[in-house]
Amino acid sequence: MRFLVEAPGLLTTVQDGGRYGYERFGMSPAGPMDRRAFRIANILVGNRRDESALEATVTGPTLVFDGDGVIALTGADMDAELNGAPCPTYRALAVHAGDRLSMGAAKEGCRAYIAFFGGLDVPPIMGSRATALQNRIGGYEGRKLAAGDAISVRAEGPLPGNLAGRQAPRPVFSRDITVRVILGPQDDLFTREGLDTFLTRPYTVSNDFSRMGYRLEGPVIHHVADGNIISDGIVAGAIQVPTSGQPIIMMAERQTVGGYTKIATVISADLPLIGQAKAGDRLHFRSVAVEEAHRALRQEEQALRQLEESVSSAPAEMPEKQYRIHLNGQVYHVKIQRIEQEETPCIRSI
Amino acid sequence: MSEFTIRYVGDQALSVEFENEISMAVSRKVRALRRELARRDLPGLGELVPSYRALLIHYDPLTLHPEILIRAVTEAAEAMDPAGSAGGTVVEIPVLYEGEYAMDLEEIARFENKTVEEIIAIHSGCDHYVYMLGFAPGHPYAARFEHPFSIRRRSSPRVKIPAGSVAVQRDLSDIIPFELPCGWNVIGTTPVLICDYRKEDPFLLRPGDWIRHVPIDRAQFREIRRQVELGEYRCRRYEKEAVR
User: Fold this and answer.
1) Tens-digit pLDDT profile for chain B (244 aa)?
2) Cβ contact (<8 Å) for B49 and A233?
3) How many angstroms separate the Cα of A270 from the Cα of each of A286, A297, B177?
4) Which of A232, A249, A230 is nearest to A240 (CA)?
5) Is the CB of A24 inside 8 Å of chain B's CB atoms?
């Protein structure tokens, strides 16, 4: 199965789990901004969690399929329609030749994911299919999708069955978000009052938010001296505060080293909340211990495993019935198997 | 044994910090710790990212408990051998120090009260140590330890400096990875790429390498560029004798 990009949306890229192993060469891993939604989409269609899928930003694409496949939409609600009828999210859907998936603007959240059973047929570069826009490599020719692009799906073997059983709960994306952070590594370079400001006052996402990072606006965070350090490594979720006192959250395509003081780091389990934030959203930071962050990560892992189990326990084979039929003195052994996919409500309700 | 501080960096990384300075001695500790930890084959240990004075250690907390990692880091820091980081690989990078490719060369010479030839001799006569890579893929942060210039950044940055420009200030020398605004002084240009994704190993340099700038003329520049475009050019490399 292949799909044609009829309209690309604002910024739609191929992402997978990320291109790891090259940060010491100055290359950030890229990968999804909302890893949770990305992984759920893949699990729902029966893929490995970190298989390649599409990430749409603010407005989604319009895709036309030329064959049978199974897809799932997760993340931001972009009023998706399949052949003009509202299309459910957070569940697997069958698509057929000629079907048109069209997405609009995000009503809630910022980024939507579209996973395809089998993953996307773009060449892996340095072990990953993730698009790194800054470095112009990976994904589809190292760039965001454009109208007229066509991507094949790497599906091999039979499509997953029991689509109705492949569902996950839809989260609510708020515009007023509390994220948990672990203070440091340079929290000692801020005044007590500076730390207090950061942890008690709200910060607003500015218009400058991207896959590289989110610039925030709010009360100035005061340093003991200034916002400069001898450059060191930067992780996803690191919150840099330059001398201006306005924080920047470093994201999937961050620079790998930098010379600004880092007041705190968003915990991994809450980083997807930032990936779903957009200009004007308000952020509150709450300091937690590393143990709590690890607990949250284990819960996240457990939830994903449960979802994986629940979708894989769904019967992959079509149900089959066998009959022994006596006809004119002969005995026939007859097998009856439904060969059509289960109908998907959103397509056939028209 | 070295003085160091271990800090949590979020929930999936630690940073080990040595003395708060940019120096060869500290850089060697960072690299020695990296080597020592990498040898230990610790399940759940992720990427190790060296910078001037710190080693960023990624780990998977679902596999590796941070306390076990901290113990391993402490042991590695005690067992490591910073002297083992002496020497290193010299990578020769051809540079055309001429005309429109060296737009600030004459100004550097004036500022340093030297001839253009003397400036080129200093820049190509000293090896530049690669502390770390960052900013862009394969981009080195490099400095030399002898004959620093006194010139600093230009008072107003140039709006555009082409990729491949070699730019300097004080003891620092940079290779501009892509066209960007920059306040450094452009001394020349190189036809080689610091990152070429067509190659199995895309990165020209490693932390701890030494850059040797080799003056070339326009004909050599064109020939090397042709080979680079074909993916055939290989920079000359050799072992540097141990430096104290």
Assistant:
1) 578 999 999 999 999 999 999 999 999 999 999 999 999 889 999 999 999 999 999 999 999 999 999 999 999 999 998 888 778 999 999 999 998 999 999 999 999 999 999 999 999 999 999 999 999 999 999 999 999 999 999 888 888 899 999 999 999 999 999 988 889 999 999 999 999 999 989 999 999 999 999 999 999 999 999 999 999 999 999 998 866 5
2) yes
3) 11, 9, 34
4) A249
5) yes
CA distance A126 to chain B (A): 8
Write down which residue in A259, A293, A327 finishes a domain.
Answer: A293
* Closest Cβ–Cβ partner in A23, A26, A301 for B135: A26
Q: CB atoms < 10 A from the CB of B96, how many?
A: 22
Choosing among 3.40.50.2000, 3.90.79.10, 1.10.10.10, 2.40.100.10, the CATH entry for B89-239 is 2.40.100.10
**Domain span(s) for CATH 2.40.100.10 in chain B:** 89-239
CATH number at residue A203: 2.40.100.10
One domain, residues A36 and A141? yes
Nearest CA in chain A to B138: A25
pTM for this model (two decimals): 0.91
Q: Which residues of A134-160 are buried (b: 16+ CB within 10 A; e: fewer)?
A: bbebbbbebebbeeebebebbbeeebb
Cα Rg for chain B, rounded, in angstroms? 20
What is the tally of structural domains in chain A? Answer: 2
> CB A256 to CB B134 under 8 A?
yes
Q: CATH 3.30.1360.40 in chain B: give the residue spans.
A: 5-85
Q: Find the CB nearest B9 among A125, A185, A256.
A: A185
Q: Cβ of A231 under 8 Å from any chain B Cβ?
A: yes
Print the domain residue range for A68: 2-165
Nearest to A255 among B11, B56, B134 (CB): B134
Query: Measured between beta carbons, which residues in chain B are less than 8 angstroms from residue A187?
Result: none
The length of chain B is 244
